[in-house]
Amino acid sequence: MLFTQIEFFFLLAAVFAAILLVKNHRAQKALLLIASYYFYAYWDWRFAGLLLACTAVNYWLSGLMEGSSSSRRKLLVTIALVYSLGVLAVFKYFNFFVDSFRTMVGIAPDAGATLDVILPAGISFYTFQTLSYTIDVYRRELRQCARFSDFALFVAFFPQLVAGPIVRASEFLPQLETPRTLSWERAYDGFRQFALGLFKKVFIADRLAAFVDPGFENAAALSGPTLWLVVIAYAVQIYCDFSGYSDMAIGIARAMGYDFTRNFDHPYLATSIQDFWRRWHISLSTWLRDYLYVPLGGNRRGRFRTYLNLFLTMVLGGLWHGANWTFVIWGAWHGIALALDRLLTGKDRGRGRHAVTRRFAGFLRSISGWSLTMVIVLVGWVFFRSPDLDTALSILGRMATLADGIAWHHPFAIGVVLLVAGYHALLAAGKSNWLELRHDTVRGPAILFTLILLVIAFYPREFQPFIYFQF
Amino acid sequence: MMRILVKWLAGGTISLVAVWVVTAVFSDSIPLEEWSPTVKRNILSPGTTYQERREGWATNHVGGFGLIASRPEDLAASAKILIWGDSFVEAFHVEDSAKMHRCLTDRLHDPPGDEGAALAIGERFCSIADYRFRIPDYEVALKDVKLHVIHLYSLEDTFPDQYPGGRISLFLSEPELHFEKYDNEFREIEEPVSPGRARRLIHQYHLQFFSRLRTSLAGIARLDGLRFSPGTAQKSTADPAAHRAWNRFLEPSWGSTEPPLEAWRFLLRELDSVTEAPILFVYAPPTPALVSGKLVLENPEKNLADHFSSLCEGQGIGFVSLEEPFLRFLEENGRFPKGFHNSRPWEGHYNADGHRLVAEAIHTWIQKNRHVVYPD
């Protein structure tokens, strides 16, 4: 079920009504759990079993860790990792690895023996979510959750189940221990965030798809300047699509009395690539930091290992997005950029041996921090969006040489890009007060209702799933 | 609490006004229709306008008999050329002055003289089967018709047994070749319509958003198309490029590569039998096209088009192919005669260049066949 489906609004209304009617806290949680499994089973009931199995195995194994010896705990966490990542590998990466191996040894990639399976929706998200819990219990940073039903709700809570944000058990489980307080202020806050997310997803991202999709599909025939517009439009599309989903998820949860941390913080205002990753998909970047980068050694084993760890973390982060070399390259590109950023402008700045290096770093920071970051990000998006490496390289070549071709000046894409640029300029200039949309003003409801009505008025005719559903 | 409620009501009102303004400018308007006893069908109400925003950007003015972009002097012309077609001829997407029939009229009057005027009778989803039934009615209504031009986008319409859903009139092969008339056919409205006061207000004040909202809410209230039971996801094997609506013309599925000669002879005979005026087919191939970044220049229907052209010639019916003018235009200008910047500038309906090219092709044929069009 999608947040933009009519059926979802019926479910939402039913859930809110039930929460308001049923005052018992445990009964409320049971209702939320049932609603969450219904939400997931609506897409495909068969995979609800997979979700339940993943939940049960991690809960069971982390439960066995209580009072166990260190070696046994290590064994249990290893089993949990092998199981969870194994399931992910089978459903998401099996075909990719088999095809890559065949290509490597010279066998035709389509010579049978791949799995013809559907990628379970949200598997990457709930796998990471359950793993974070198991690893936290293993590290003794978190106590075993007392009730299986609470843990199951943490994993399956429908606002964030299929496309994040990746919620930490340490943030969410404590919220299940006490009854939630519902209030008009919370309801309005939730409504505001949901409306903003809905507008970003349906009005901006889905309508931009009508330009971006054929733009990438026909890139070989389009002019260089048109491709720049296509790639910039894609940057806006994926931001509005994904942050729109996060906003809706956070808004729904907030109205129900649950708080998620923000997942995006205006990433296109970043002045360095490190800054970008502090603002983009924050729940994933912090997950990768805490459960991958730090265990790899983080920055504690010298400069070279720090750069290598950054690179490996980003490559695996890229692979998390999808089973395609384009995602691996995208991750590697960001890994290299992060390492270089750290070398030239980050914590290692003072350690640079050469004054030239330090001056260059200063130059980069002062003159071109933002624009350089944007170019890095845009080049990354070309790999991320392209169906294969050849297409990505062809697009980058045509962009670099401003190649001749069909010129396509899509008025909506141009208008939205300018609008988003203007909005970011206002934010950068500190003129964001008028965007608060308070409930006790005329402006707040006026803008929110306008956004919702615009969504209804310009609802796209072609179905556009959330981009991050495929991950 | 009361103050907040008042502010929310004010906010709600402001948002309604804001959305009304935005949709009045940026969304397609709702056409106003009425029954015409003269041509015996529902037509766009003369004197009204229709604005197109989704594909192209134009405000269409409806003239007499519901004909779009028809001026009184064109309707009064002593020699009329009628261009029949579907949405390509309806041409909501370009301004009136750029439509093919207006371009043709301009050419007929250059140099100035009384060469008559062209009128377009276009309607989305219509096919040759509809023209066959409508030609007699319009000849009576418009008078002095000197030439019928039938615009074909691909040869799909010339094959029998298309549109199994029976959208409008049909060309069928069972039990024998015949045309089947579908009365009161206008856009699935089965009864003659007469616009009510509410619809006139919606049209006049561009309240299309509220009209569509009402329709949507009514559908939701009836739970139309909604599913509440858990389902099973299907693995998608669709190639998005191969299944796009416009690309279907590049892989014709409505007939074999063998020309349906018998059906075509019947079709031409039937058309010829309903009018005294000469007939000209203007054939637009689905090429040039752009598929997955590659230009498709070779017309997949070329063989069929050649056969159809020969058959037309044999029956004294004109045939003009736009294949060569379209390719030449693309080569010279790097642009397609179809498509718009707010849709896709390589596929879809004709843009202003496409309309001009069609008009030029018809005009050239008329110049070569003046004795056929203007026998006296």
Relevant terms:
heterodimer; A: 471 residues; mainly alpha; 17 helices; globular; B: 376 residues; Rossmann fold; five-stranded parallel β-sheet; 12 helices
- Total number of helices of chain B: 12
Basic shape of chain B: globular
**How many domain modules of chain A?**
2
Number of helices of chain A: 17
Oligomer: heterodimer
Assign the CATH architecture of the domain at 56-169 and 245-373 in chain B.
Answer: 3-Layer(aba) Sandwich
Rounded mean pLDDT score of chain B? 87
* Pair with the biggest interface: A-B, 50 and 47 residues
**CATH level 1 name of the domain at 56-169 and 245-373 in chain B:** Alpha Beta
- What is the H/E string of chain A? HHHHHHHHHHHHHHHHH
Give me the count of strands of chain A: 0
The residue fraction in helices of chain B comes out at 25-40%
Poorly predicted tracts of residues of chain A:
none
Structure in words:
The complex is a heterodimer of chains A (471) and B (376). With 471 residues, chain A is mainly alpha-helical. Chain A has 17 helices and no strands. Chain A starts with 5 loop residues before the first helix and ends in a 14-residue tail after the last helix. The mean pLDDT of chain A is 87. Chain A has helices spanning 6-21, 25-43, 46-65, 70-105, 123-138, 148-156, 169-177, 184-217, 224-256, 273-279, 282-293, 303-321, 325-344, 355-385, 389-400, 411-428, 443-457. Chain B has a domain at 56-169 and 245-373: Rossmann fold, CATH 3.40.50. A five-stranded parallel beta sheet of chain B has the order 6-5-7-10-13, sandwiched between helices. A two-stranded antiparallel sheet of chain B has the order 1-2. Chain B starts with a helix and ends with a helix. The model of chain B is unreliable at 185-190 (pLDDT under 50). Chains A and B meet through helix 1, helix 2, helix 3, helix 8 and helix 17 of A and helix 1 and helix 7 of B.
